[in-house]
Specification:
Elements lengths: L3 E6 L7 E3 H9 L12 H14 L2 H6 L2 H8 L2 H12 L5 E5 L2 E5 L7 H11 L3 E6 L6 H12 L5 H6 E5 L4 H9 L3 E5 L2 H8 L8 E5 L3 E7 H6 L2 H16 L9 E7 L2 H22 L5 H16 L3 E7 L3 E6 L14 E7 L13 E7 L3 H11 L6 E4 L9 E2 L2 E2 H4 L1 E5 L3
Parallel strand pairs: 4-5, 4-7, 5-6, 7-8, 9-10, 9-14, 10-13, 12-13, 14-15
Antiparallel strand pairs: 1-2, 1-6, 3-18, 11-12, 16-17
Helix pairs in contact: 2-4, 2-7, 12-13
Amino acid sequence: MVASVQVLFPAPDGPSITNVESLIDELAAEPTDGMLVAGDDRVREFLMALSRRLLQPGLARRHPELGSLGFFLRRSELGRAVEQMVGKSPAAVRVPRGVAIHFTPANVATIFAYSWAVSALAGNRNVVRISERLQGAGLVVLDAMNEAIAEAHPAIRETQRVISYAHDEATTASLCAACDMRVMWGGDVAVQTLRAFRMPPTSRDVAFPDRSSSAAISVTAWHAADDDRRRAVVEGFATDVYWFDQAACSSPRNLVWVGETSQALAARQGFQLLLTDVLTERGWGVDASMAVEKRVTTYGLAARGRATSLEFVGNAIANVELADLASWEREWLGAGTICHIRVDQLDEIAGVISRKDQTLTQFGFSAEELANLVNHLGGRGIDRIVPFGQALAFSRVWDGMDLAEEFTRIVTIQV
């Protein structure tokens, strides 16, 4: 039986179902005006056209996460990426890796677009497999891509595919056998499952498995901030937590209060009031089934001695007081679950950080304090430290890897 897939981009004029062999053959053909190169102008123009569509005010209001993607694809951002890819030495030329196969999850609807965009800008021919459960903002991105393709250079249509298919080993095996690079986003189990499928010996794996993230607040800085600044901090925290139902790897689960006990308690009370107000103002909430999920998981923490107190603020917020640093939480407990812990100094958390810890969002710390924490870690974990509100802002350096470099290779030239 021939493995088949549904092509979602570029949207075909006829039937959307094709077989894998035909798809691979199409990508192997040389595109109009020659093969893509790293930083290809044809790709840049398409990505900028896509950016303009995603940044339309009406669209951004309905799906605010699309604003971040649109910003990522702006001319200036792409220019910086291209400058790094192309380089300035004729003796070392960056070139595409070839055919890149991307396997992306459903829980973060826009991640497929980031992965594809960087790889396409690197000059790769791409096949992006998205979940059949993709919805919301992800479908809006697909629509925008198919609108933009009408004005794009033919090479984009000839070299880029977004597909979907039910879990099928034969289809996955065919795709992996034909790729020069395999990009895997998802849980540890998904990554390990995909690694079982053979690739050509010259192919490369890039994996983004399960990660978890946390946040930290300087109690001193909180008390020194004015009302507007405090509200901005809380608004940023709400964005980091409630977009994608806190399921994104960079959404914080632990919130560390750094400072003296009584001052930290006062800061936390003020933070809680503002967070409740912000969620009400934005109309962000959690449905009843998610609220039940949070109660089950948080009561489980308490039963195992990992939490000393629980507080539920409606359906939207579950405050968990962790017993100690050893109870550092990495599992998803349900949208709007915040695990609180207090320490005297930021670098105290270094002892519990592991390679699973990806992002630390922070407010109020100096560059010296943050660098001191990184040095204490010695590479054990944390790949990025960003201000509140920037946890979900994708960059081409992700999970400690520079994607502009990962998605290309270097050809050296001696004359």
